[in-house]
Write a structure and sequence with these properties.
Layout (H helix, E strand, L loop, with lengths): L7 H28 L4 H8 L3 H4 L14 H14 L1 H8 L2 H10 L2 H7 L11 E4 L15 E5 L2 E12 L6 E7 L9 E7 L5 E6 L10 E12 L12 H33 L1 E2 L2 E2 L4 H29 L5 H26 L10 H8 L1 H4 L7
Parallel strand pairs: 1-4
Antiparallel strand pairs: 2-3, 3-7, 4-5, 6-7, 8-9
Helix pairs in contact: 1-4, 4-5, 4-8, 4-9, 8-9, 8-10, 8-11, 9-10, 10-11
Length: 369
């Protein structure tokens, strides 16, 4: 039987993350959005929570707690409830650390994971998306060709978090373009590797607080030992599934924040002698927002639950991401609509959530559980 009742350990973690999102993330969101960057001391405060080191084995310097996709989805939602841009920035090191933790060779784990257990925020990232209109995460055009004792990577990536600051990259590339997920693997590329070129920072409609860059792989050579998982590869489909779960959970967080803010506004905003929340048009809109947010959340939870059981959750993870992308845009738009003219001014956060909400339809590979 499926049960989403949190354990006592999950409750403790979620209480901590909720307090952090409310007291640190949400108050800083607007300033970070306007300035286009997140202060390092803010990232350091997140790092002090120990959420990344929790799942890393004691042999690699971590705390050795069991990693759970469902717990990760719960954390992702709470952080995104505070702010999506900050949530993605704070969790960006997991884009590298979690795949290495789950699928890396013992040598890769011992070499790279201890760096995620020390003091100070660790800048590491992953490069999945490619700058083309027809981008498909199961049909990458970035290639990895074996030449002697090395792999040669060629291609271009976009929307790579903190690429200008990261010292470790996990680059996804195909050894056989057109062969689907089976031909795709991940390759560890260290900062300074010849052929790794970090381009200019990209500008999007939303997520202005998060530093996203183009990355070009111009004949970038890495040793055979840098293929994630070694000769057996990494199980790319599972990485993609876990990323889609995180993305849909974050969408639920943004939509829940929008719904809560719009509901509170509607209860306080008085027109013609009564709160606008008492008008059926507004009340029905808020009800639909609650229903769709719960549906979004439960789709993510089901996929995460299956992932934790070792089941194939490819279908469920894809449905969760598809649903989140479609409804995050409409729900955040409804938040702006409920506030009327106030929804269009920056005094209220719904315009920011609307702009960020569009990302769920477009971007991919920016989070993982």
């Amino acid at each position: 039987m499926i049960s989403f009742s949190p354990t006592e350990e999950q409750r403790q973690v979620l209480d901590m993350v909720k307090r952090f999102a409310a007291s640190v993330v949400r108050p800083a969101a607007r300033d970070c959005e306007e300035k286009g960057q997140i202060p390092e001391d803010l990232l350091a405060k997140f790092w002090e929570l120990g959420l990344v080191a929790n799942s890393i084995p004691e042999s690699c310097g971590g705390y050795g707690y069991e990693r759970s996709a469902l717990t990760g989805a719960l954390i992702a939602e709470e952080l995104a409830y505070g702010d999506l841009g900050l949530a993605l920035a704070m969790m960006s090191p997991t884009l590298f650390a979690y795949p290495v933790l789950e699928m890396g060779t013992e040598e890769q784990k011992q070499k790279y994971l201890p760096g995620f257990c020390g003091e100070g925020f660790r800048y590491a990232t992953a490069a999945l998306m490619e700058p083309r209109v027809t981008f498909d995460a199961t049909d990458l055009k970035t290639t990895a060709v074996r030449e002697g004792g090395e792999y040669v990577l060629r291609g271009e990536k976009c929307a790579v978090p903190y690429a200008a600051r990261a010292d470790l990259f996990l680059v996804f590339a195909s050894a056989a373009p057109g062969s689907g997920c089976g031909g795709i693997d991940a390759y560890i590329v260290e900062k300074g590797t010849q052929g790794l070129v970090v381009g200019e920072r990209e500008k999007y409609m939303g997520l202005n607080a998060l530093e996203l860059h183009r990355v070009r792989l111009d004949g970038c050579r890495v040793p055979l030992a840098n293929r994630l998982g070694g000769p057996r590869g990494c199980g790319y489909q599972r990485i993609l599934n876990l990323s889609r779960i995180a993305w849909s959970a974050m969408a639920a967080g943004v939509c829940n924040a929008t719904k809560d803010y719009a509901a509170n506004y509607a209860k306080e905003r008085v027109q013609f002698g009564e709160p606008i929340a008492s008008r059926q048009a507004i009340a029905f809109m808020l009800a639909d927002m609650a229903i769709e947010t719960d549906a979004m959340r439960f789709l993510a939870w089901k996929a995460a639950w299956q992932a934790d059981r070792g089941e194939d959750c490819t279908r469920e993870a894809y449905l969760a991401k598809l649903y989140a992308g479609e409804y995050a845009a409409s729900l955040t738009n409804n938040g702006v609509q409920i506030l009327g003219g106030h929804g269009y001014i920056r005094e209220h956060p719904v315009e920011l959530w609307f702009r960020n909400g569009r990302a769920f339809e477009i971007l991919d590979g920016l989070a993982i559980v």
